[in-house]
Amino acid sequence: MIRLFVIATVLWLAAFSCHGQEKVEYKTYVEVGQTLPMTVFGDIQGLQIVLTDSSNNKLLVLFATWCHDSQRAMKAIMASHLATQTNIDIIGIGREESVESLKNFAAEYQLNFPLVADTDRSIYAQFANAGVPRLILIDGNNTIVKTIIAENEQPLAQVQWH
């Protein structure tokens, strides 16, 4: 009986990934070459982020605090050169996250970039239907350069603006 319970539990856990439901087809609603659909965000500190104010490349990180792949991606970003580059603006967008959960996450992971609480998934829904972390690379003109679903051991392997 215990063996059956353990097997059932393992199968149940395996059915869930970072999108929080059973596997669904991932759809991306933005394309390379398209202008970013949003250029203004309010961060968890109450500040406004206006992407058109900067000619830097940008990295949008769509993530969830509870997701192991998202946690791995955030650790990788902070351990990489991206976290210290002055010509790259990083913005994290917490899918279905509250300001409080993001403040706790930022402190725990020692994030040095702004986070945006997407409590109702309205921001995320403009980019995709499922799957986190998603990395959206944007050039200085706010044109999408690349979209990446970073659910792997090397989440930054494809991050290049060239």
Automatic annotation (TrEMBL):
One of its GO terms (biological process) is cytochrome complex assembly. GO terms for molecular function: antioxidant activity; oxidoreductase activity. Residues 33-145 form the Alkyl hydroperoxide reductase subunit C/ Thiol specific antioxidant domain. Keywords: Cytochrome c-type biogenesis, Disulfide bond, Redox-active center, Signal. Residues 1-20 form the signal peptide. PROSITE patterns: PROKAR_LIPOPROTEIN (PS51257). It is found in: Cell envelope. It comes from the Bacteria. This is Alkyl hydroperoxide reductase subunit C/ Thiol specific antioxidant domain-containing protein. The lineage of its organism: Bacteria, Pseudomonadati, Pseudomonadota, Gammaproteobacteria, Alteromonadales.
